[in-house]
Write a structure and sequence with these properties.
about 100 residues; alpha+beta; about 40% helix; about 30% strand; binds zinc ion
């Protein structure tokens, strides 16, 4: 179940994406050092800096672990996912659903 705070952040992230402030630049799969597959998203954000900042979101399907390189995640990532992770999760979910339904 999503918490209220998470929903607020999801909304903010999606609004940012809709405004072009946060966007997925690329997505790739790689092999992590432990041998598991990891999915990596490169995300460009202009929300806090007009010059823009690039963050990387990583996901390991084997462990269900999500990570982001942004300061927000370093501070609160263990409690609530940051907007970059939420954006990657939405994109990932769309891909999973497309794969399931053709
Ligand atoms: Zn982040």
């Amino acid at each position: 179940m999503l918490q209220e705070a998470t929903l607020k952040r999801l909304e903010k992230g999606l609004l940012g994406a809709a405004n072009g402030l946060i966007k997925i630049v690329s997505r790739m799969t790689a092999k992590a050092p432990d041998g598991n597959t990891a999915i990596l998203w490169e995300i460009f954000s202009r929300q806090s800096n007009p010059q823009g900042t690039t963050y990387f979101v990583g996901y390991k399907p084997a462990t269900g672990e999500w990570r982001c390189t942004c300061p927000d995640f370093q501070k609160r990532g263990h409690k609530t996912p940051c907007k970059h992770i939420l954006l990657a999760q939405v994109e990932h979910q769309q891909r999973v659903e497309e794969a399931q339904h053709g």
